[in-house]
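Bench notes, afternoon.
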Amino acid sequence: MDDINLHHRFLNWRRRIREREMGEVRPAQERFMRLLKNGDILSYQGNSDEVGCYVAPQPLSKGTCYFEVTIVDTGLRGTIAVGLVPRFYRLDHQPGWLPYSVAYHAVNGKLYNGNPLGQQFGPQCVRGDRIGCGIHSENPAAGITTVFFTKNGREVGSAEVPGTTEGLFPAVGMHSLGEVARVDLQAQWLLEEDESMMMVDSHEDDWGRLFDVRASGTITKCVTSIKIQKTKEKTDEENPLKSTNKLGAQETHNKLLEYVGKGKSIMDVGLAQARQPLTTRCHYFEVEIVDAGEKCYIALGLARRDYPKNRHPGWSRGSVAYHADDGKLFHGSGVGDAFGPRCLKGDIMGCGIMFPRDYILDGEADGDDWERLEDQPQPEGIQNVLYLNDEGEEEEEEEEEGDMEMERGQEGRKVAVFFTRNGKLMGRREVGVPLGGLYPTVGMLSSGEKVKVDLHPLSG
C-alpha cells in the first residue's frame, strides 16, 4: 500500500510540474464516466460490470465544506457511493477504493478509506435517503483532513484522510443499472443545530426494518389523559381501549413515515416493521394518514419478524392487516374480506392485541431483546387493559376449527387482533402467534403516501 501511495503522489507531483512549465491555467471542469448528467441528476449508463464515477469541478473548502446526494433510485444493487477524491481520480473506480479518497457506500453502510476493503461504518441507505459528506478541518490542504458523513441530516461518523495540495473533490460512484442520484453541491449542514437534532431525531431505531420507506422525523405533542369510566353495558370486547387510571399530561411521539418506492407494481411495496413486537405492556399502536398519495394503498397490521419485504402486510402467512384503500382485512392471503370502511387522509387507524390473562412474553422488560420471545406465567401485579374476560376467552377456545392460518414453527398460541378507525372498534380476528411475536407493520404502495405512527399511544 505504501508503494501505491508513493506512486500516486509522484504522478500528481509530475502533473503539477508539467502544468507550471507550460503555463497552463486549466479551468475548473467536472469529470464523469459511464454516467449521464442532466442538471443535478446522475444516472448510471454502464453494463453493471464497470464502475461509473462523477467528480465535481471544485474541491470542498472552508466556504463550501459540505455536499449531499439523494438516492433517487437504487437500481439493481444500490451500489452508490458518496465521498471525496483527489482532482484526477480514476473514474473507473468507486470513491474510497484508491489512496487519498474516502467514501460512504449505500449498499452495505461501509466506509472505504483509500482501500478496496471497507469497514462497517453506518446504516445502509435506500431510495429517498440523503447521504451527506463534509470536512471539519480549517485548512484541508495541509496535513490530515477530517471528513464526516451524514444520513438524512444526522451525522453518522468521521474519518481522517491524508490531505492533498489541491484539496478533496466531491465524488459519486455507481455500479449497477437503474441507479439514479441527485447531487446538491450547495447543500448546508448547520453544526449549531446538532443539539436540537439530538432531541428530535428520526427515531429510525424504533424500526427493525425499513424498505422503500423513509422515517423522516418526530412530531411531539402533549395530550391530557383522563380517567374514563366504563359503563356497565360495555364489555372488554366492545371497548378494548378503555382508559387506565392515569391522570395529567403525557407526551406522544409520532414518527413520520414516507413512501419512497416506485409504486408501479405490487412488487414495489414499501414496508416498515417495528423493532419490538406487541406485548402485554405495549399492545396497541396507531397510524394517522397524513397524505393518501395517488391510491392510498396503505395497510396497517401485524406480521412475523421475517415477513417478506415486497409483500403488503396481510398478503402472506404470518400476518394480518387492515387495508385503507378498500377497507378489507387480509389475513395471510392475497384475497381480503370485507371488514370496515375505507380510510382517507386524516383518518387514524389502530391495531392491537387482546391478550389472554395468563399470557406474557419473555423479555418484555428488555427493550433491546429482539431475538427470542416465549410464553411464561404472568407475574401478579402486571395489569393489562386489553385482557379478554373469562367468558369470551372460553368461547374462543371452543371455536377451534382447524385454523388454516397457523404457521410452521408456531407454538399454537392464539390471540385476538383488533383494529380501530378514529377510535372506534372495527372488529377483530383470531390469529396464531409466530415464534418471536407479532410486530407492528405498515405497508405503502403509491407515490406520495405519508403516515404518522405512534407506537405507544396508550403509554403515559
